[in-house]
Amino acid sequence: xxxxxxxGARSGKSRLAEDTAKKSxxxxxxxxxxxxxxxxxxxxxxxxxxxxPEYWTVIEEPILLADKLSEIDRENSLILVDCLTLxxxxxxxxxxxxxxxxxxxxxxxxxxALKSEIILVSNETGLGIxxxxxxxxxxxxxxxxxxxxxxxxxxxxxxxxxxxxxILKGDKQ
Length: 173
Fold this sequence. Notes:
By secondary structure, the chain is of the alpha/beta class. It has one domain: Rossmann fold, CATH 3.40.50.300. The protein is built from six helices and seven strands. The chain has helices at residues 13-23, 39-51, 65-72, 84-92, 99-110, 134-153; strands at 2-7, 27-32, 57-60, 77-82, 117-123, 156-161, 164-169. Strands 3-2-4-5-1-6-7 form a seven-stranded mixed β-sheet, with helices on both faces. A hairpin with a 2-residue loop joins strand 6 (156-161) and strand 7 (164-169). GTP binds at residues 7-14, 32-34, 49-52, 60, 82.
């Protein structure tokens, strides 16, 4: 089972993903993609840490997500990745201009082969106007392309608004 949960900032997407993981009855492995490179991001990371159960395994992986998923994959587990848009930012800001495309392809190829249940959390970035600035436009474009491709392989796609989930694809839980 692959689930993709999308939404804007503070839409309730992470809370939904965490609640779903808690209710699964499976061993949960939480993969965090954030990097606490400034004080504000460190506060955000700390906030998320406080919300997670202490018994979850937490792994930080800002770049090589597909490799990490392959490494930690196992039966009777659920891997929650939060979030893909921070991961995309990390990839796009790397010096290697091919890294983003290569890592996204690796992720798309590995997901269907995993034994774990997967929950992917990401910010929906395509609801606003076309942004000013090359890197911002590239971020929105590449995130949107990734979401579309993930939506095709996901069993369930959910969009969160104001704390309310809307099922776009798949059965209601």
